[in-house]
Amino acid sequence: MNIGETYLEIVQKRFKSVKELGDKTLSQLDNEQLHWAIHEESNSIAVIVKHVSGNMISRWTDFLTTDGEKATRNRDDEFTDSLQTKEEIMTVWEQGWQVFLHALQGLTEADLQGFVTIRGEQHSVIDAIERQMSHYSLHVGQIVYIAKQLKGSEWQTLSIARGQSQAFTESMLKKHQ
């Protein structure tokens, strides 16, 4: 496998991991928690989901051939809390990820040498992918952080539980011996 194919395989794996963290977090929350915001200038999880999905659909529809900021996107509206139910929120979440992952899976090594346009500015395809890695990870991190605060002691950890690091490391070492 060459470096381009390796890179595409790695980023697909990493993005799926980011989505999985979001999925596991969202599954722990009820509708009220999804709409909670600490104050009016803060974003609820529902708003973050709407924004991430809007970004994914805009950036990754016709990724290689059209500007990533589509005329049909209303970014300002993404920051209004208009999704009513958890089902709507989950539908919007999945729509964005499906558009994004489908486009990412369709990229080839040759595509990595090309350029795309975002808001009229040219970016290498690799830079555009890495920008989104940073952007989506940041927002999923926000979702996780808000959810942990809301759930408190009812939070179901997404990684190694507190006090379990040594046991986890030992099990991984045994697994790979």
TrEMBL record:
Source organism, top-level taxon: Bacteria
A Pfam family of this chain: DUF1572
Protein name from the UniProt record: DUF1572 family protein
Lineage: Bacteria, Bacillati, Bacillota, Bacilli, Bacillales
